[in-house]
Amino acid sequence: MKSAVENLTPTRVKLNVEVPFEELKPSIDEAYKTVASQIQVPGFRKGKVPSKLIDQRVGRGYVLETAINEGLNGWYQAAVQESGIRPLSRPEVEITEVPDPTSTDGELKFHAEVDIRPEIELPDYAGIKVEVAAAESSDEDVDKALDELRGRFGTLKSVDRPAADGDFLTIDITATIDGEDVDSASGLSYQVGTETMLEGLDEAVTGLSVDEDALFETTLVGGDHAGESAQVKVVVKAVKERELPEANDDFAQLASEFDTLAELREDLAKQAAGSKVVEQGVEARDKVLDKLVELVEVPVPDSVVEEQLEAHFKEGNGHGEGEHDTEEHREEVKANTARAFQ
């Protein structure tokens, strides 16, 4: 097999491939076996029909077409490996020449256009300087880590008051479109403020007591009506708050390997300091990348941008409806996609 690469743009190539008959023949033999298992000829068991009878029944041209269809991806992948290109999209393949079905020689020729990862030359980046925030942890960082640890060992307690941010609720919801119920669920658990269920739910339940309800408009995110606007009724069935264990030596022994709260806080301080160093490293890396992007031009394949646009604005994901799908929003997605690729 021979292959050659023709550069169309900095991010797109045409891969020209020629497969000689000797390399095509194994695929033709497999195609005969495939066709033999699909047809029935009196006097022959299924799969045992001779090649000449297959040629008479379905034509050698059909066998050749089957062989090419089944082997095309393998030859394309071999050509990719041979050429060293790094594809980023599905290839657009065109077959330009096939062997004469009546002959036992000839060759298969096809070309494939595909977007590839561009080759770039890095500039001399020695001496690039960036400034990052100091890697310093504080008592507030330690307190936050301690509260998160206490939260893992907290217990939920029912309260007789309206729901507030951070509370844990049990709710029933019913969604209607044009007055018709389209979805409902009972006994759902939800923490106010997490914004993990439906847009507008937090505002609707805040201030509600047990057995009180509220209506709000939202876009459904799942089910047969995903992406559609609906009116949702939410009923609060229970309001609970998390009761945290007291931060003392007993808690330190329960939640860690340490005997005292002071030892636990010291360890949390070390972890907080380590996290700050990691954050500092990430910030430095991102700023260096920003500098490099300014110094070198990285072409972005059109297909990468188009695929991201299609995925982002796909109907049903919440971005492709109404005011979300604007020219300004699309330009923002294009810019973010290009920056991420670079």
Architecture overview:
- The structure is a single chain.
- This protein is α+β, with helices and mostly antiparallel strands and 342 residues long.
- It folds into three domains: 114 residues, Trigger factor ribosome-binding domain (Alpha-Beta Plaits); 89 residues, Chitinase A, domain 3 (Roll); 93 residues, no CATH class.
- The protein is built from nine helices and nine strands.
- The strands form two sheets. Strands 5, 6, 7, 8 and 9 form a five-stranded antiparallel β-sheet that branches. Strands 1-2-4-3 form a four-stranded antiparallel β-sheet.
- Helix 1 packs across helix 3, helix 6 crosses helix 7 and helix 8 packs across helix 9.
- The chain starts with a strand and ends with a helix.
- The model has no long low-confidence stretch (mean pLDDT 87).
Strand content: 15-25%
Looking at how many chains there are and whether they match, the oligomeric state comes to single chain
Number of strands: 9
What is the CATH superfamily label of the largest domain? Trigger factor ribosome-binding domain
